[in-house]
Amino acid sequence: MENEFRKGTGPRQFRYSELATATDNFSDDKKLGEGGFGSVYRGFLKDLIIEVAIKRVSKGSKQGRKEYASEVRVISRLRHRNLVQIVGWCHTGGELLLVYELMPNSSLDVHLHATDNVLWWTVRHKIVLGIGSALLYLHQDWKECVLHRDIKTSNVMLDASFNAKLGDFGLARLVDHDKGSHTTELAGTLGYMDPECTVTGRASTESDVYSFGVVLLEIACGRRPTAARPDGTLIHLAQRVSELYGQGRILEAADARLDGNFDPQEVERVLVVGLWCTCHDRNLRPSIRQAINVLRLEAPLPERLPPVGHPAGPLPMPDSDTGHSSCTSTAQQLI
After folding, report:
1. One of 116, 141, 150, 263 is an active-site residue; which one?
2. Same domain, yes or no, for 81 and 156?
3. Against a cut of 0.90, is the pTM above it?
4. Which segments does the entry list as coiled coil (predicted)?
C-alpha cells in the first residue's frame, strides 16, 4: 500500500509515535467516534501546527482494512477544494491509520437536522454547488472516473467557512471513463442508494447521481430521506416532493424553518434537479454536469420529469447502512 500512497503528491508517512503523541496515546478524551471498523481521534500535529482527525482501524476488522485500502488507492491521489484532504498515513506493526484535515463544523446532517439552529438558504445553496463540484471532478474531470458509492449528508463535511467537503472514500471505486459502471457487492446507505443497486449491486455514475439527488432534496426540505407511515412502510422524500411537483406546488416542499427566506428560483432548481436525479430509470437521469449547469442557472429546467423513486410505491426498507458499517455519527462528521 505504500506504493499506492506514493503515487500521490500530498500525503506524508507518519511514525506511529507521532500520532500517538498527537492523540495523548489515543486516549478516550480524544476519541470522537467509534464503530465496528475502528475509532476516530482528534489530534494536534505540532510540527505542522494543525488539528487533524485520525482514523485508527481495528486490527480484527477485515472490512475496515478493506476500506482503508480503498482510501489509500483513491483519496490520496485526489485534489479538489470540495474533497476532504488526507494529510498522511501510517501502517506499521499491524496498525492502520489515516490522518485527515479536521472539519471544525462537523457534518452537514448535524446542521440540517439540528433542533436549536437553522442553516440558512445562502449557506445551503453554497453547499449544494460545492457537493456538485466535487462530484463533477470525481466523475468527469479527473483522469479516472471515481464512483463514491456512499454520498449522503453525513459524509459531507463542513469547514470553518461552511464550505462543503465530500469525505469517506472507503467504498469508492475507480473505473475507466469509457466504462459506465462497476459491478460489485451491495454497498452504500439505504434511503440514499439507487433502488436498482439494491437488486443488481451495480454501481455507476448514475447511481452516484441518484444519491446526489437525495442529498439535494434533504438540503432543500430539511427532512431525512425516508419517513415511516402508520402501517410501518417507509415513503421516500423524493415521492413526497414529486407529489407537490405534480400539483404545481413544489416550493411548498421547502424547509418550513426557513420561513420563506430564500431565493425561489434557487430553491425550485434544487428541488427539481433533486427529482430529476432520483427518477426511477437511471438512463433518464442527468449527468452531473447537466445537473450542475441547471443549478448554476446556466441551463433551463427540464420541461417534464419522469417518475421518481420506486415504481411500486412506498419503499419497504430500513434507513440503515448496508455493506458499510461506519463509525458513529460523530465519527462520520469528521471523515
Report:
1. 150
2. no
3. no
4. none
